[in-house]
């Protein structure tokens, strides 16, 4: 269960670490979005003298949090929201990671809602009433909604930066500077003016390394991480630009370290903010200067331009502007109704600051697979937020949670591990769409990816999502849903049966009230649209280990894993019922490690 939402009264009070894991704030609290901040540290676990003593681990986490706090001050912000911490362990090496979004907040007397966009209690068989559509209004918004552009304004002044940045005038108020791109781990703020529809973007990086041990391995990983971080962000920017977008919300970055590879995965929901300038034109170059290479580069450039044109049509961005008015660095344009931007303090913290410019990226033609991908069919709306930005469809009550796990062994004959990793993630998304094909048109929200490197040359990826029928009408399909029951589902989510050979009807939640205790809803979202949390009953953690010596006889490793996940979800539901609940929020599959021995059939 998720914890109760914190009070906003003391969010601006002095704190040693003003970090908050919540991804959304009540209206009127958030004033500016500074940007994405990240800190990583590489440590050796065998350096701990007493494994039972937490002091050393606490000191390591303190170093990471101190660095996050220094990043926060550099951007002139007051708190970090959407904060998360994670680790990646390989033998004795451990990579500590912390990520969040630096923002500025203000005091407010408004009472925070217990559940966004909800009016009905999570009890009884009443109709769904609350629908959150404030961020999907038509372009003809009221003047009050137009003030949402202030969230995009830079909270710091650009005249103190040691490098020139391409700050532009806000395209709505024309009085303050805005960045060319916004990256945020938080959700899309309510009332922020957007154009078109949001979409899922994902950057994938996989780097091969030699198998090493001890300090040599830690030194190698420490030197590789900055370049991996740069490559993740550059590829993410390219993905955003080729989709015609200029902002990404709900950013999740995961770095995993294995014996022979290091992987980085960044996932988010791209949107087009009206206050920000349009994305720049992507250009390709060739490392070779001959005529043949130039012709190939020109062909790639045409492919990218066609992909951009297609994406702008799919996501409703045909009316987006193309001209940008650039503001001169060193001048501060201040609105009368807003505070004066602060000067960034680059001397904060114990480490030197290095600024890396990601603008005007020139992409090598050999890396075209990292930029252009075949779009999914229009009947699938996908994002990792709780609702699709730019549409009136939020996560409905009848949404079902789906989990898919894939295991793969890197093959030398297939060449670059980076391309294999990218193809594996693409296959995972395609498999997810195939599994729920009978529900199309549908929405897939709250996507959560996880990457594990259990053994040498092996990788395991998993994805969890909430799937529900959608009312949008794709332009490329007709007669969707003929000869199909309105409550048909492709596979059983609740019973311990072989999921590859069964079909299940989604339970009628209106005829079977949640208050009766017959149904336990599971969702990765912090709320359920149309229902209000009546009481928080606490966290539920489940740790399971299952072993089998008859994998082939039970149908293979895929059937074994499906049944295990169904059993795990059933145990979670049983725990919820035991404490008197009828739903579990913020569901996360933190670890799912699959180790198989073919010669032992286990």
Automatic annotation (TrEMBL):
Q: What is the lineage of its organism?
A: Eukaryota, Metazoa, Porifera, Demospongiae, Heteroscleromorpha
**Ranges of biased composition (kind: Polar residues):** 129-144
Q: Which organism is it from?
A: Geodia barretti
Which is an annotated Pfam family here?
YbjQ_4
Give every C2 domain span.
15-105, 178-273, 377-467
Instruction: Enumerate the residue ranges of region (Disordered).
Output: 105-144
Sample GO molecular function, one term: calcium ion binding
Q: Which residues form a coiled coil?
A: none
Give an example GO cellular component term for this record.
plasma membrane
Q: Which BP terms does GO give this entry?
A: intracellular protein transmembrane transport; positive regulation of D-glucose transmembrane transport; positive regulation of protein targeting to membrane; positive regulation of vesicle fusion; protein localization to plasma membrane
What name appears for this protein in its UniProt entry? C2 domain-containing protein 5
Q: Give the C2CD5 C-terminal domain ranges.
A: 522-602
């Amino acid at each position: 269960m998720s914890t109760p939402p914190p009070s906003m009264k003391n969010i601006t009070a002095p704190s040693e670490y003003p970090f908050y894991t919540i991804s959304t704030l009540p209206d009127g609290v958030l004033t500016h979005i500074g940007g994405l901040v990240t800190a990583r540290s590489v440590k050796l676990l065998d350096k701990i003298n007493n494994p039972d003593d937490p002091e050393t681990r606490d000191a390591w986490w303190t170093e990471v949090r101190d660095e996050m706090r220094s990043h926060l001050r550099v951007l002139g912000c007051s708190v970090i929201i959407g904060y998360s911490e994670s680790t990646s362990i390989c033998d004795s090496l451990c990579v500590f990671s912390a990520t969040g979004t630096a923002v500025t907040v203000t005091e407010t007397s408004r009472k925070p809602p217990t559940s966004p966009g909800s009016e009905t209690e999570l009890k009884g068989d009443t109709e769904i009433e609350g629908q959150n559509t404030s961020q999907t209004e038509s372009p003809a918004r009221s003047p009050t909604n137009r003030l949402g552009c202030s969230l995009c304004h830079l909270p710091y002044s650009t005249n103190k930066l040691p490098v020139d940045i391409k700050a532009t005038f806000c395209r709505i108020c024309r009085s303050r500077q805005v960045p060319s791109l916004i990256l945020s781990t938080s959700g899309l703020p309510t009332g922020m003016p957007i154009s078109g529809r949001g979409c899922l973007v994902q950057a994938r990086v996989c780097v091969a390394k030699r198998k090493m041990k001890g300090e040599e391995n830690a030194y190698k990983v420490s030197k590789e991480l900055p370049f991996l971080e740069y490559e993740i962000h550059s590829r993410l920017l390219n993905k955003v630009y080729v989709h015609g977008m200029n902002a990404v919300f709900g950013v999740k970055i995961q770095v995993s370290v294995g014996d022979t590879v290091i992987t980085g995965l960044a996932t988010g929901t791209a949107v087009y903010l009206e206050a920000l300038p349009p994305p720049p034109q992507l250009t390709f170059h060739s490392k070779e200067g001959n005529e043949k290479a130039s012709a190939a580069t020109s062909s790639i450039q045409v492919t990218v331009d066609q992909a951009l044109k297609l994406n702008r049509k799919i996501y409703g961005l045909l009316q987006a502007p193309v001209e940008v008015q650039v503001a001169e660095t060193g001048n501060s344009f201040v609105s009368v109704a807003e505070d004066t931007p602060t000067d960034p303090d680059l001397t904060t913290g114990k480490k030197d600051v290095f600024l890396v410019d990601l603008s005007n990226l020139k992409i090598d033609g050999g890396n075209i697979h990292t930029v252009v991908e075949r779009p999914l069919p229009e009947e699938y709306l996908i994002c990792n937020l709780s609702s699709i930005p730019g549409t009136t469809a939020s996560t409905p009550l009848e949404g079902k949670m789906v989990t898919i796990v894939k295991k793969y062994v890197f093959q030398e004959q297939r060449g670059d591990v980076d391309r294999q990793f990218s193809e594996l993630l693409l296959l995972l998304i395609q498999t997810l769409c195939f599994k729920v094909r009978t529900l199309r048109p549908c929405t897939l929200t709250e996507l959560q990816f996880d990457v594990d490197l259990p053994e040498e040359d092996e990788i395991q990826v998993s994805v969890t999502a909430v799937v529900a029928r959608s009312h949008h009408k794709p332009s490329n399909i007709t007669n969707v849903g003929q000869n199909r029951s309105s409550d048909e589902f492709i596979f059983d989510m609740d019973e311990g049966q072989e999921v590859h050979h069964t079909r299940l009807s989604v339970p009628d939640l209106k005829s079977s009230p949640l208050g009766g205790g017959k149904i336990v809803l599971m969702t990765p979202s912090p709320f359920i649209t149309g229902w209000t949390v009546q009481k928080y009953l606490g966290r539920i953690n489940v740790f399971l280990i299952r072993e089998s010596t008859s994998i082939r006889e039970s149908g293979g490793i895929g059937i074994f894993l499906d049944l295990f996940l169904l059993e795990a979800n059933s145990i979670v539901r049983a725990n919820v019922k035991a404490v008197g609940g009828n739903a579990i929020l913020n569901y996360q599959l933190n670890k799912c490690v699959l180790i198989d021995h073919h010669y032992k059939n286990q």
